Amino acid sequence: MVVSCLLGLINIGSDVALKDILSMAVSGLYLSYLAVGSLLLYRRVCGHIRPSSECEDTTVNVPNAPLIMEKSTLAEDAIQPTGYYNEYDAPPKDELQLNVGGRGATQRRLRNYHVTMIGFCSGIGTGLFVGTGAAYAKAGPAGLLLAYIVVGLVLWCVMQSIGELATLLPTAGSFPHWATRFIDPAVGFSLAISYGYCYTIAIASEVSAAAVIVSYWTDLTPAVVITVGLVLILASNLMSVRFYGETEVFGGAVKVLCFLGLVIVSIVITAGGANNDSIGFRYWNDPGPWTNYNGITGPTGHFLGFLSSFVNASFSFIGVETVVITAAESVNPHHAIPKAARRVTYRIAFFYILGALLIGIIVDPRNPALVSGSDNANSSPFVIAIKEAGINALPSIVNACILVAAWSAGNSYCWVGSRMIVAMTTDHQLPQVFGRVTKKGVPYVAVITAWLFGPLAYLSLGSGGAAQAFTWLLNLSTVAGLIAWATLSFCYIRFHSAMKAQGVSRDTLPWKAPLQPYAAWVGFIGSTIIVLVAGFPVFLKGNWSSSDFVASYIGIPIFIVPIIGWKLFKRTKFVRSAEIDLWSGRLQEGEILVQQRVPRNLWERFVDWLV
Questions:
Q1: SS3 for 349?
Q2: Residue 242's closest CA among 118, 343, 119?
């Protein structure tokens, strides 16, 4: 907190050069503090870590048996209990988790509606309300719409794959553990690092964005806004997971209601209800459905515009997949996760695709405000259309919703980052102290560790080297999310291969995702292509920029280098299909005692469908 306060005080000064020097110096001090603290902590507790070779082999290999088994008769020393909640606030029972790399002591307190709204929160954010403006200016109405349809398809494939895995293995290890089990422990280690970094650094991104959003109304010192945002995020994540779930329900409700309101307003504007000027599909005719990217005319310019929007759309969708991380803390993951995988993706695709269509109707892609660079409501295509229609009160309301979206996203990113740290402890890739929990099952050490990246937001308030360094950190985080999509899809491909090699029918699974393994291949190939084309503008004539090239592609070696390092250090091996463990880590059928309330009337059926 001392370093955080220093970073905040830097921005109060008036001398720009002095601020830059102090920002860079304190940044170095802050990172050194993290490094030294982590090293001392590791040396203190490393003696408590057992190498994986010394862990008991509790793998249960029962060919052709259901993957949800009856009550186990294994010896008690092969059972690792974790907190499990059959009722909302009931005392924890022992949940059997076998050979999942360690003990996950988080508690199952998230209800179905929590899981659903977390999916909403992770998928609807500033990317929908603000980020679509720049993409629309580059691609035009048809390019933007097509880009969101294609990326929505890729995301649907990824969600079906990880939804099936999370339903079968709702463990604290989550994403990294799947990579460890189905691909190679080194891949699991690298995925935890890159994915965890992607979300911990995004905490700083969101709170700094909140400071810009507040500037829409007042000249309040941005450092104050950042400090308040960081304190609220830390407080929310140190409460019980139930409290976190309730905050996400609130954030999701605000964003959904805001979007529905924008849909209604957009329809009114299109019909001419605001200023008696019916727009219809005017901008699809003039300037047309496509725009020329970077002055390149013809089909080539249209395709490049689509490709640019394609990349932006992918970044907007990143985060939807985090809903399956709730499996380890869901009251009934066998019911909640398949429901989330089936419905949340459709809803997110609906919101984005409908939003892209409406933007192409109500705003001229040549409007300079779309690329103004503002992170508040001024650059939102919806707000631009509202202002041009002469509706003066709504922009402030939309800006308030964007502020809630930014805080909700930062809150969610801290939660995801902390769970990645917990995942590394369950696979013995970090000291076990990082997995310590409170009486309410909150991994407080992991939460604080993830939150410590948040104060880097103060760097965004400087200029020169400090601000440039912060921009680079953010660019690296976006590519990490796309690499995670590809890796998770490949996890399912390996899982499906193991099922086939070991003669296990998919009919034994608690939930079967449709179109598998083809959907996983689409998710893997599609995500890989997006990663490879993410920095294509630098290859265009006259557009070369070393910094942009590095920012676009450095995420690839950052993912590969930890794999090589962990393999050399631990001498891990690629797991063969016939040797993949398909049995341990499942919830036993007798452990799932939550009674699902059957809808009795039309309203209850609607609510059940909604959440």
A1: helix
A2: 118
Give the type of residue at 59.
T
- pTM of the predicted model as reported, rounded to 2 decimal places: 0.77
H or E element at residue 394? helix 394-426
Q: Tell whether 145 is covered by a domain.
A: yes
How many other CB atoms sit within 10 Å of the CB of residue 246? 17
Q: What is the greatest pairwise CA distance in the chain?
A: 76
Instruction: List the CATH number of the domain containing 147.
Output: 1.20.1740.10
Q: What is the pLDDT of residue 233?
A: 93
pLDDT recorded at residue 123: 65
Q: How many other C-beta atoms are found inside a 10 Å radius of the C-beta of residue 267?
A: 13
CB 407 within 8 A of CB 234: no
* Confidence (pLDDT) at 73: 32
**Residue 314 belongs to a domain:** yes
Q: Is 339 helix (H, G, I), strand (E, B) or coil?
A: helix
Burial 212-240 (b: 16+ CB within 10 A, else e): bbbebeeeeebbebbbbbbebbbebbbeb
Backbone angles phi, psi at 325, to 5 degrees: -65, -20
Q: How many CB atoms lie within 10 A of CB 588?
A: 15
CB 174 within 8 A of CB 195: no
Domain membership of residue 269 (yes or no) is no
Q: Which helix (H) or strand (E) holds 44?
A: helix 16-45
Q: Are 142 and 357 in contact (CB under 8 A)?
A: no
Tell me the helix, strand and coil percentages in the chain, rounded to 5: 70, 0, 30
Q: What is the pLDDT of residue 473?
A: 64
**What is the per-residue pLDDT for 154?**
92
Phi, psi dihedrals of residue 596, rounded to the nearest 5°: -85, 125
Structure tokens at 569: 């250090």
Q: What is the pLDDT of residue 232?
A: 92
DSSP for 551-579?
A: HHHTHHHHHHHHHHHHHHHH---PPPGGG
What pLDDT, on the 0 to 100 scale, is given for residue 604? 66
SS3 labels along 113-163: HHHHHHHHHHHCCHHHHHHHHHHHHHHHHHHHHHHHHHHHHHHHHHHHHHH
Cβ of 367: how many Cβ atoms within 10 Å? Answer: 17
> pLDDT under 50 in the chain at which residues?
1-103, 590-593, 595
Count how many domains the chain has. 1
pLDDT at 471: 62
Q: Which domain holds residue 134?
A: 2-264+291-610
Does 318 map to a domain?
Answer: yes
